[in-house]
Design goal:
Chain lengths: ~130, ~120
């Protein structure tokens, strides 16, 4: 699909590649510097979660065209252990890895739309979209 | 790649010029503390003018190195945070509370001199 490009997340350097891909697509779609920073930061958080908790997975960046609106969707997919308590991971300050616990609730605030689907043992699927204003 | 740390009188100056990966950030943490130890510097300015985003990992590394420097007796001022970076940090939920900041390197050095009581 030409509207979607993906980066496999296997190590820490892939986090950098995913960010760069996202920033390039955001620039191309016409997002301003603040939204570019929001999108880049959101990708970084999601890619790092894959690396830390699932070991591997992928980040896809999709260009969205809907009802005359243009947007960018980040799709984060992994086949890791999944999340037991979705409500808990969406709380600020909750972390099992010694991090700041800002990741997922932060991504939700940075983006316009946020969807998370996860079952223990079956991986995690997160989609976060930013619309061009 | 390692981030260069410059010494100016009793201060250390760092300008982060490229996107940080995790390893570079952690290496910087160690290098800065070692340099504080080696030079007996009592002030540090970290300039982030060229940085266009900070995620929670980089924020944690920065916050930690500031605390660690404090333990060793050195004060750290962060300078040059871009508007987009300030917005995304607060939206992420990271306030970097109790961190000394200044608009640019010049004001950062002034602030450091005040803090150090000179």
């Amino acid at each position: 699909m030409e509207n979607q490009s993906c980066v496999k997340i296997l190590n820490e350097w892939d986090i950098v590649s995913a960010r760069q891909l996202g920033r390039n697509v955001a620039k191309e779609l016409g997002f301003g510097t603040v939204d570019q920073a929001r999108i880049t930061t959101a990708i970084s958080e999601l890619a790092r979660n894959i690396f830390l908790y699932a070991g591997q997975g992928q980040i896809c960046i999709e260009k969205m065209y809907k009802n005359g609106k243009v947007g960018l969707r980040i799709i984060s997919l992994d086949k890791g252990p999944g999340i037991n308590d979705l409500r808990q991971v969406m709380e600020d300050g909750y972390s099992t890895s010694g991090g700041l616990g800002a990741g997922l609730p932060g991504v939700k605030r940075l983006m316009d739309e946020f969807m998370i689907d996860s079952n223990p043992g079956d991986g995690t699927d997160i989609q976060a979209t930013k619309w061009l204003r | 790649m390692r981030i260069p740390i410059l010494k100016l009188h009793d201060c250390l100056l760092i300008s982060i010029q490229w996107e940080l990966d995790d390893q570079t950030a952690l290496q910087f943490q160690e290098d800065l503390l070692q340099k504080i130890h080696d030079t007996s510097a009592n002030g540090v300015v970290i300039d982030l003018t060229s940085i266009d985003f900070i995620d929670s990992f980089i924020a944690k590394v920065l916050g930690d190195v500031i605390e660690m420097s404090k333990l060793m007796g050195a004060k750290v001022v962060i300078t040059g945070i871009q508007p987009a970076v300030a917005i995304t940090l607060i939206e992420l939920g990271i306030g970097l509370n109790n961190v000394l900041t200044a608009l640019d390197l010049e004001k950062g050095l002034e602030k450091l001199q005040q803090e150090l009581g000179e």
